[in-house]
Amino acid sequence: MAFALTWKIEFGDINGLTDITSYVQQMNMDLSAELATCGRGSAQITINNDGGQFTPTSGTYGSTDWFSKAMIITATSGANTGIVFAGMIVDYQITMVNSKESTVTINCLDAFSLGGKTFARAPTNPDISLVIETAIERTFNGQGFANFQVIQTPTLGQSISYYSKVDVTNATGTNTGIDPTYITYGYVGDWLNNQIIASGPGALIPTDYVIGTYAGTPNVWIWNATLIDRQLNRTSPTLYEFADGSSAITTGQIPFSEIATGFTVDDLTNEAVISRSSNQSVPTGTNDASQKLYGPRSRSYTNLAASSSTYQSDISNFWVNRYGSIQYLPLEIQTSYAVLKGSAVDDGVAMLEFMQLLWPSTALWNRIAIKYKPTGATSTQTNQMIATRRLITADPSNTTIRLTVKSGADNQSFELDSSTYGILDTNRLA
Length: 430
Fold this sequence. Notes:
By secondary structure, the protein is α+β, with helices and mostly antiparallel strands.
């Protein structure tokens, strides 16, 4: 049998992790990365505390400083293992039904969201990946303004100088430049979202962590993230195919249990107001044909750190040319481990793809073909999509994945001779 799925839930710091899997009753993990935003990952874990192990001051873990610890959640299938969530514990609540029945709910948040809550100096490098890395590191490593409180947790490093490092991998290879002179000082999350990532525009996906060496210091905790830049197409994509079972499921197809369809009204953009900080010229891109059909639907970014006024116009055109029409498409799709075992081909291919949907580095901003037969239709249709949000619910009986999906054509770039993302009907060299 190729189907296998096990979970491991651990908390800890640079000194090691403690496995608490056997106490876990349920988990919910949410990961989202919309375009022009710094993504957000969260986890909520419900733990059995009937034995009092997690009761502060008296239990086995009673002396634990929970708010200085990381939470690491890992999924394994055969030889394939990956981190599903890595972040910091931000809330710890105990529910006592009586003296013999109790649960603990632990809430966690990814390091990039946590790091965005402090006030720090703006970086000066024009490389988006390095700007994000430097920004978050400064919030963890005590390099904010002297008069402002910086994050003193997570205490995951061995020295006061290196609590944590950040490593941002560009998955698209573009890494559009910015002009750091336009970055205003302030809260890191504000200028990452409103000035830096929106200047791609791109999306940042918090992923996992490693223990490595930083500036000559060994055993430093390093938070990882994946950057999707304006190119949108990953250089090493993962391809998924979902099928509703109206015809025989084939190898590699992931069967799904629910699909929600609708019109893409929320994404409609036919006017984009784009300007840099302190810039008197405001390039505005418009899609006149779209406005005549639907009326004006505008988005505004007026404080970008764009590298030039020409690039501001490029950003305007990016929005209005990609999102100027309303389409009827899948909006959400759900599958589960139980559905996979019950209907997928048992050759390991679909199981691996299910695992890749669990792992943050491959779950979002990859291509998904959804094959289904709409109500009343006589034939199956295929929609090319990408996922921008993934919600996981897991308990001892099952693991469910629910994806929020968007149009692949709008959120990927042209590829020469591709059967799905741009095919030429004539040999232009003949």
